[in-house]
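Before a colleague's protein record goes any further, I have to sign it off. Thanks in advance; the entry in question is below:
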Amino acid sequence: MAMRIKHENTTAVPDLALRVIKTELNGQRQNLSFLTEDKSTYYEQIFTSRKRWLENACRKLYNNTQRQSIAQALTDGANSTKNGYLLDKTRQIGICTMAKVACTNWKRVFLAMNNVNASKIPGPSIHGTVINYGITLNKYSVSEAATMLRNFTNVIFVRHPFDRVLSAYRDKIEPKPDGHYWKGYGESLVKKYNTKNESVYTYPSFELFVRHIVDSDVSTFDVHWKRYVDHCQPCSIQYQFIGHQENLNEESNMILKILNIDHLHEFPKRDKFYKMAPTNELRDSYFSQLKPELVQQLYNKYFEDFYLFGYI
């Protein structure tokens, strides 16, 4: 079983802001109607608290010899980290986008910040567009990228790790028997877990998907379920703003406001091509299909993500 580390609260914040933070750490959607003053003040306290939590957690999980420099982290996670990091060089702002954590809409925002109108670009096409317009770190050397990451204001958005795993399954495998991921992963999962003498599985169930993740080395994870700790290198790159998808629109617009770029682009609403019910509403239904031992193994696999971002 993964070791659970008790967090020492070293950040003094007002009771009202602490109430918001505790709500978020439970992975729950917030109702901020009880805030009667300027919300930006409270959000600044929340973002500061999350940043300090991450810094403390990194110190506890990794000693100084284990923590990588930004250049080392970019070299180890080269394509993943550099392709997923968007930047606005003029304003020196960047974001590490995570698949299944509102990355499509953040790409729309950063395209707008770079004077590209992305409002009419279909969601599935947006990912190639940011590369075509050269607003990722991918076109820079490791040295150049490391310099920008040290000097830029860095943003990251995360969500409950279990919700992200389930979202990847529902989006990429479950509904698409003719799709790329069904053929690339779905069919192979059925073959992988059927024995020569007995064909138990005919469908790539959520259980098979979770078993595949548990049985795989984290270095081989697809980008849609790759861990935050590996993709965004949060113990090497300093993130000034850590947002939670559980309160996505409000926090996104608040970050844009604090950075004085809210006049450029309001954070987009959920794309219409996402027709499925929100994943967090279905988490219990899917995870109840799994044996407790398998859930524990999945938790162990994503333990760093749970701990570093307060989902404990």
